[in-house]
Specification:
Blueprint: E1 7-8, E2 11-12, H1 21-32, H2 36-45
Antiparallel strand pairs: 1-2
Helix pairs in contact: 1-2
């Protein structure tokens, strides 16, 4: 897997957790049902 380092406002994004496609799909389903916690999780972890 190719991992690129990108720095945004002093944050090294290569050290942030990466969600699997299955995890993303589960979060999208929860968001579609109105789960704001899932929305926050998606924004913070991707």
């Amino acid at each position: 897997m190719l991992i690129n380092k990108v720095e945004i406002c002093g944050v090294n994004t290569s050290k942030l957790p990466v969600l699997s496609n299955k995890e993303k799909e589960a979060l999208f389903e929860r968001i579609h049902r109105g789960d704001m916690t899932a929305r926050k999780s998606l924004l913070e972890e991707t």
